Amino acid sequence: MSNYKVKKAVIPAAGLGTRFLPATKAIAKEILPIIDKPAIQFIVEEALAAGIEDILIITGKGKQEIEDHFDANFTLEQNLKAKGKDKLLKLATETSNLNIHYTRQDHPRGLGDAVRHAKAFIGNDPFLLLLGDDIIRGDNLSQRIIELYEEYNQTIIAGVRVDPDQTKNYGILDIQATQKPQVYQILDMVEKPQDHAPSNLAAAGRYILEPQIFEILDTLEPGTTGEVELTDALIEFQKSHPLLAYEYEGEWFEVGDAKGMLKAAIIFALDHPEIKNEFIPYIKQVAKKFETHNEKD
Ligand code: G1P
Question: Domain Nucleotidyl transferase spans what residues (predicted)?
């Protein structure tokens, strides 16, 4: 049991995954693997390692595989046991029996609306929100912002610096430095700015939110995107509550589309115990091939 105030986490996983079609026509995008582990398992493991005791996953139509993945698979277990495949049995059983709860978003009305579905589960507690498309590699970002919440008791948004030409794809934070390195006061936020981004610090899919956010989410109408945006709720919240940003310096992958997933797979393969020995020489060979190819051009 952790002594920290943040003990609950919410993972919205109701999105349709259209950026990943046709792969997501019959499969939940959260189940697509980075090498051999479903993306959502990385997120759940990060939350548990950060001391989270209960996780709510917000699913929707066609997302049953997520529940199946975090459930026991009796037939598989029997089979692996009979064959004495202990290592595989461990892999098959370590994702069952976790404190994971589920609720469903009835219509895909956006991230803000999905988060609103966590209201009863959260009650009066601060909570960790992890977005399923955002995978980190390096220090446990969730743990870092949970620790910061102990110190500041304020809503915290984790951010990562992006190239200026990428700001149009993210929620961008307008920030002011504080005494503490990597910690900023948030002055404003813009969701996917098309021309003038206030900075290059992008919201990176990890937040510590306070329960008062539900009062705003309950009354929020869909914004210009036609969806209820979490960013709009946070902008409203900021009018009466201070918001902090934490700049994460580890690696961040957005795996909501094929390009991001491929980038993550390559990097994770470099230290995957069963793959790296064969993969590293292979990738060097491929890089060399590209070099010679480019020289010819
Ligand atoms: C969401 C948030 C955005 C954030 C991004 C991180 O956008 O709305 O503020 O920067 O996740 O991946 P989405 O990727 O769902 O469009």
Answer: 8-265
Question: Which atom of ligand 1 is found nearest the CA of 133?
Answer: 12
Q: What are the helix (H) ranges across 221-275?
A: 230-238, 258-269
**200 and 266 share a domain?**
no
Query: Which residue CA neighbors atom 7 of ligand 1 most closely?
Result: 170
- How far, in Å, from the CA of 95 to the mean position of ligand 1? 27
Measure 192 CA to ligand 1 centroid, in angstroms: 8
Identity (one letter) of the amino acid at 206?
Answer: R
What CATH number does the domain containing 108 carry? 3.90.550.10
User: Cα 176 to chain center, whole Å?
Assistant: 25
Identify whether residues 222 and 279 lie together within a single domain.
Answer: no
Q: Cα(96)–Cα(78) distance, rounded to whole angstroms? A: 15
The reply to whether 111 and 226 lie within a common domain is: yes
Write down the pTM of the prediction: 0.93
Q: Which domain holds residue 291?
A: 258-297
Confidence of residue 295 (pLDDT cuts 50, 70, 90): low
Q: What is the pLDDT of residue 108?
A: 84
